[in-house]
Amino acid sequence: MTEVDIEKENAAIAKAYKELLRVSYQTLSKDDKKLIRHAFEVALDAHKDQRRKSGEAYIFHPIAVAKIVAQEIGLDATSIAAALLHDVVEDNPNYTIDDMERLFGETVARIVDGLTKISVLNKEMDVSLQAENFRKMLLTLNEDVRVIIIKIADRLHNMQTMDSMRADKQVKIASETLYIYAPLAHRIGLYNIKTELEDLGLKYTEPEVYNDILEKMQESKEEQDAYIKAFSKVIEKSLNKEGLNYEIKGRPKSIFSIRRKMVKQGVSFDEVYDKFAVRIIYKSDFENEKFLAWKIYSIVTDHFTPNPIRLRDWISSPKSTGYEALHITVVGPKSRWVEVQIRSERMNEIAEKGYAAHYKYKNANDKEDSLDLWINRLQEALENNEANAVDFVEQFKLNLYSKEIFVFSPKGDLKSLPKGATPLDFAFSIHTEVGMKTRGAKVNGKLVPLSHELQSGDRVEILTSENAKPNANWLDYATTARARSKIKSALNAHTKEIAEEGKEILRRKLKQLKITLNEKSVNELVNYFKLKTSLDLFYRVGIGTIDNAKLKAFASSRSNAFMSYIKSKIRKPDAPNKDIDKEEITSKYDMLVFGKEEERLNYTLANCCNPIPGDKVFGFVTINDGIKVHKKNCPNAVSLQSNYAYRIQSAKWIDSSQRAYTSHIKLSGIDNLGLVNDITKLISENLHVNMKSISFSSDDGIFNGDITVEVKNQAMLKNLIDKLKTINGIDKVVRV
């Protein structure tokens, strides 16, 4: 770099630093500014010889992370300083955690230490142990929740500046973000950041889909702005008449949420009706907030008809993230559904800043904060170290994203649970001991099974007994991470007791068969009985599933194995069959190529997404079943790419015109005479597609159809779906 370039870069760094101070959400005192300045100088020195992949000076990254922490999340000077220093100890051996404590005090040092531990976890290992890392990362919440918040800000900036990375790295980091960081941001109440992380995640995992929706949204932006203006005009006069101080904003739905709706409802972009929401933000003192929110609700519903089942009152019962608002869906101009969100300025700040704004408005005499309650519950889930890390993350993730219901205890206490929760979840949310001793449950005074799904407003009473204890069926009834982890712990303890007895029984029985119980024989037995672990083996012996007869069969196969091996070695290889059809081989084995070398390997197609030629796919190396091929947009893709990046194989289709693939199509529409005949005629005669099965049902003039067809590639399937849509009476055709 020339001197002029260095001078320009230094000026840009100074400008970025001044901007950081200017945009801070908190009011910074002289001491705060002094602390931030000192942290900036140390970070500048530590990173002076480093550059990012894009070529810019590394210091821009910690400044950007600190800016997200200061402006978008709204944390204090301590957090801003820690964000500036978050990579110092990891990247520069001249600085240690002790130096951080000496220079900046214990709190900053503790946060930097937590952030360093998380980064080292991610870099130390050759394989992606992301789920285990995630569990360890959550443990840092116990030390300081700001560790996680700064980590989310760090991930956001990395996602914003990922263009210079290799494509495979982009997919791994984006999958990890969708799998872990977006749900976590959602749970801490950082909704804006959650939305941006999801959109950026989609940008790198499914770029074509992302760009297509983005383009369509940009095209319709002018129309949306005009619509919001028309909507506002109708209610402004009434709001002004009441002397309210307010602001009306339009908020487009995120690309990720539009994509989710398109997939879930099987509709195109144009058919997603609520692509934006209208937000009314009003000024109010704390005492009148609720009164004014319902007054605005009344004014909006005077002008527009509300959908009664879409009213969400999070002012009377705030979400466990602290989120408060009234959400209503009304029929707006041009008969379109519009979601209207009514919030005070305080509620809006909490919705946008989450944790930081919550503490700004928190009174000293408030009850324990919902975030503190959540952290306490999380600690209990983390205590169960025996759980499989991936299962733990999956379960945790479900609880992060799940919608909430509110139920009452017999005494009238309100409890928040995830949607889909059962009486068993309620029992464990009260106390572990109550859960463990559950015998039955009453909901609204009636006895219900433990699998009964609770609804908002239910009054739940748990019946307990000293003799009751968890059984394996409980895992089918419980949905929350807390309940499941406690049940698994209890079941594991029982299993281990039986396994200990089983081990001794096995030792005696093998001795009679002249086999020593050691690591080699245990592994042979595990493989022979197609089990996963030695614990499974000992447990099955303990409960008698593996009996004397089965063990004798094992001993016999063991003694025959050596002879079989010798025979296979001396047997002459078969002469090549000249009649083998070359086309048949091509159709069966040469369908996909894997990796950069484009190798041809054996594989099976995953049942969860049924890929067909033309679909974008990847290979996943399983433990027992070789390579399984999944579609890039398979529901399991993000989880696999995030947790097991080291087992992902890039894959692409080659000429596949020789083989037919099974695909399922669902149809719905208005029933009319001869419709089934039109459909079957179109498929069999015009398109020459083979139908494997077809079923139709009609109910009060509406029909639903299910067709299984064989197609050779994606183009053929798309052509079939497009043609089916043209048949009179058919409303929707989707590939399952």
TrEMBL record:
UniProt keyword annotations, A-Z: Coiled coil
Function recorded in the entry: In eubacteria ppGpp (guanosine 3'-diphosphate 5'-diphosphate) is a mediator of the stringent response that coordinates a variety of cellular activities in response to changes in nutritional abundance.
Keyword Coiled coil carried by entry: yes
Coiled-coil region(s): 364-395, 496-523
Matches recorded under SUPFAM superfamilies: ACT-like, HD-domain/PDEase-like, Nucleotidyltransferase, TGS-like
Protein name, UniProt field: RelA/SpoT family protein
Location of the TGS domain: 403-464
Origin: domain of life: Bacteria
Pfam families in UniProt: ACT_4, HD_4, RelA_AH_RIS, RelA_SpoT, TGS
Record-stated family: Belongs to the relA/spoT family.
InterPro entries: ACT-like_dom_sf, ACT_dom, Beta-grasp_dom_sf, HD/PDEase_dom, NT_sf, RelA/Spo_fam, RelA/SpoT_AH_RIS, RelA_SpoT
